[in-house]
Amino acid sequence: MNSHRVLFVVLALLVALPSMGREPQQSLGGQSLPTSAKEMGPFVVSFSMEPAEKEKIMSQVRGFLWDHLQNHTPGQLQITFGNLEGDPTEHTILVRLDKKGNTVILDHIATIEAALLKPGEKPKHRAFLDKFCAFERIDKDTQKIIPDDTTIPTESFKLRLKNCKTGAAPTFPALTF
What we know:
Layout: H1 3-20, H2 35-38, E1 39-45, H3 51-71, E2 75-82, E3 88-97, E4 103-113, E5 124-139, E6 145-146, E7 157-163
Parallel strand pairs: 1-2
Antiparallel strand pairs: 2-3, 3-4, 4-5, 5-6, 5-7
């Protein structure tokens, strides 16, 4: 096993371990929810996965998020994306109600850049938070917005999130769920 593979395995474990020991919250915002209804994941979507396998995961993610957005219920989702080089980007996505009672999505993002570093260079860790306040379902075929009251399978749409501050959709393609 070469040093890059060992480094990737170590980094993947560093990303995964903090989420493995988390205890599920029993109450969110005064509402008691069954664990399966309020939490989902962790999922891993790697660059090398088959398209059908990726779509299956992303369909589950879309369904979970859309259900929580429509019902204005808190929820948490964990998903890690691996890029072409194998560096992980972990997203802990929280569906919450803000102080005004509006549903928002908080995306806690942690990245590690290590695969292309020269020997002896330290991995670069970055963490940041995105907040999304507007949500749309986009038909995969026509690219048109789907009305909120329309029921369609999660395989038929993408979920587009818009940033609270900028109004822009995320630039990373995987985040157009």
